[in-house]
Amino acid sequence: xxxxxxxxxxxxxxxxxxxxxxxxxxxxxxxxxxxxxxxxxxxxxxxxxxxxxxxxxxxxxxxxxxxxxxxxxxxxxxxxxxxxxxxxxxxxxxxxxxxxxxxxxxxxxxxxxxxxxxxxxxxxxxxxxxxxxxxxxxxxxxxxxxxxxxxxxxxxxxxxxxxxxxxxxxxxxxxxxxxxxxxxxxxxxxxxxxxxxxxxxxxxxxxxxxxxxxxxxx
Length: 218
Ligand SMILES: N[C@@H](CCC(=O)N[C@@H](CS)C(=O)NCC(=O)O)C(=O)O
Known about the structure:
Number of helices: 9
Radius of gyration: 17 Å
Bound molecules: glutathione
Distance between the termini: 35 Å
Order of helices and strands: EHEHEEHHHHHHH
């Protein structure tokens, strides 16, 4: 294995933010390929990018010529090829719990708020910017209300979502908090989430992956 990694991403993309955190935690420095989601009608729709990734979404990770899409698959792949530090707990219950939290975000909250969903709301239903923001606040709010209960009521919640070290749950949660802040939700409404976010952002792997610290940040 030559161990050459390339990450296709965009500074503001929360799914790419997830991939960046996981790569940082594993000590992998990929070549960064920037796909601007708004320029040129969305570079994710360019012929060149579509040829690489037919999903027309980011992130995409290329490792020694192998393409891996879907941030959750990327995280689990990285955990398999670089086991330390682990981002999944050792026990089956723990793994189920962190996947549960990660999936609330990656499967329930994030997809309905994606750029292409907002673009469709505008194109088909004439939803203006304020309506799109209200839509996002609604779905993030419902998801975070549930997550706050799940996290605050569990004895397994520690400094991070599960214990005191970062897992895929935190890797999904922190980028979703950034999205929540973009639509002016006050994270303090959810004290456990706010506490975990503040703690995680002090971790170098999370801080370095933050949108504001990316070379393509605007
Ligand atoms: N389930 C995918 C979601 C990927 C995704 O939706 N990425 C967004 C950015 S966060 C995107 O590329 N959006 C482009 C668009 O909607 O056209 C994953 O977890 O990787």
